[in-house]
Write a structure and sequence with these properties.
alpha/beta; two-stranded antiparallel ribbon; binds S-adenosyl-L-homocysteine; binds iron/sulfur cluster; globular; TIM Barrel; 10-stranded mixed β-sheet; DNA polymerase, domain 1
């Protein structure tokens, strides 16, 4: 019996040997395992009863022991003229996460065909608490299971199949810090790359981290072809302490060393992400410090204009300043791209969709939070390191705090 506290397992939380065991336990023919994996990854079915390759008896037996999808509810919103689909997923227990599906036209200049990328969440909320990030402000709710992560990809593939398109890339840049939920993330990568299941090449998967040093080392060892992205945001420790609170535990030099070791061990180029915040991390001195830190590496730098988030006093850097910084970094030998507006409307890659649903923040709580950030950033910009991180404000929604 399933109860609210212990729902049935989701089928994608079972690896192929567990599926084979389930098939045996239910007294079904052995070959049903392959049919099940094929149905969940490659068919249009959304429930067991729609899996036409299975007999009615097998459908019913499976429905009694495993959920076809882990999500309780799925809402979809298409934006940017249908190029981007936001998926808001309610998981068992009520936690909400988002996934964002982005469709890209062919790019003949770079020899690329049509692409489609799904940005997945690995946690509901996040414990790291970067103050410019909507997810960070929500605080941490819970880790996702491997099946819950894979199901975001299954949904994306299903949507794309209906359009005659294929999913080409998966990026762990939605809600959560993937390296703080590493075992389920690794298990989900196994499922996504298994030829019998997702069939996606490891090289088409990007794991983005705010700098969990032991996790970077482990990723290099166990999934060496996965691409690593590191959210740097600041090259100087006082500012990075504020923007990425994990920096107190693993300071920027250690993060860079871990990324360099990853690049050496895997032969893969690391991408460093910098969310550009007006007047905070976009000065020529910031660019010089970044260039110094990455000197001699093959790293790629991605500059991302900050999406505005209600509870911060901060705005995106002006486009012209971002271009100047990009030029300065290029002049020092780095490869640099600037992410354009794509995804802004989607609130992509920063948990804004689910955060919006948490309710409009109370104005007084927002005002207090903004004041705190103004004071903390003024100190950080003077190079003062504070021993204590700003606590995430939590869901500010509605309630006076
Ligand atoms: N926790 C991981 C992965 C999820 S966040 C990480 O931090 O890398 C994915 C990316 O979205 C990160 O680079 C993060 O810095 C960026 N991001 C978060 N909030 C943002 C905002 N308000 N504007 C622009 N980018 C943001
Ligand atoms: Fe967490 Fe990444 Fe957001 Fe920081 S930017 S709070 S690590 S999801």
């Amino acid at each position: 019996m399933s109860t609210a506290a212990s729902p049935l397992p989701a089928i994608s939380d079972l690896d192929p040997s567990a599926v084979a065991q389930l098939v045996a336990d239910l007294g079904l023919e052995k070959y049903r395992s392959a049919q099940i994996l094929d149905a969940i990854w490659r068919s249009d079915a959304t429930t067991w009863s729609e899996v036409t390759t299975l007999s009615r008896r097998a459908q019913e037996a499976l429905a009694g022991v495993a959920r076809f999808y882990s999500a309780e509810q799925l809402e979809r919103e298409d934006v940017e003229d249908g190029a981007t689909s936001k998926l808001l997923i309610t998981l068992s227990g009520g936690a909400k996460v988002e996934a964002v599906l982005m469709r890209y036209p062919p790019d003949p200049r770079r020899g690329r065909g049509e692409r489609a990328t799904i940005c997945v969440s690995s946690q509901a909320g996040c414990a790291v608490g970067c103050p410019f990030c909507a997810t960070g402000e929500l605080g941490f709710t819970r880790n996702l299971t491997a099946g819950e992560i894979q199901d975001q990809v299954r949904r994306a593939r299903q949507i794309l199949r209906g359009e005659g398109r294929e999913l080409t890339n998966v990026v762990f840049m939605g809600m959560g810090e993937p390296l703080q939920n590493l075992d389920p993330v690794l298990a989900s990568i196994d499922g996504l790359t298994d030829p019998l299941r997702g069939g996606i090449g490891q090289r088409r998967i990007v794991v983005s981290t705010s700098g969990v040093v032991p996790g970077i080392a482990r990723l290099a060892k166990v999934r060496p072809q996965v691409t690593l992205a590191v959210s740097l945001h600041a090259a100087r420790n006082a500012l990075r302490d504020l923007l990425v609170p994990l920096n107190r535990k693993w300071p920027v030099e250690e993060v860079i060393a871990a990324a360099a070791a990853h690049a050496r061990a895997t032969g893969r180029r690391t991408t460093f992400e910098v969310t550009m915040i007006d007047g905070i991390n976009d000065s020529p001195e910031d660019a010089a410090a970044l260039a110094q830190l990455l000197r001699g590496s093959s790293a790629h730098v991605n500059l991302i204009p900050m999406n505005s988030v209600a509870h911060t006093p901060w705005q995106e850097s002006p486009a012209a300043r971002i271009e100047e910084i990009a030029e300065q970094l290029r002049a020092s030998g780095l490869s640099v791209t600037v992410r354009r507006n794509r995804g802004r409307e989607a609130g992509a890659a920063c948990g804004q969709l689910a955060a919006e649903r948490a309710g409009a923040p109370a104005p007084a709580a927002v005002a207090r939070r903004r004041e705190l950030l103004v004071v903390a950033s003024a100190a950080a910009l003077k190079g003062e390191r504070s021993p204590t991180p700003l606590a995430p404000s939590g869901p500010l929604g509605g309630v006076e705090q």
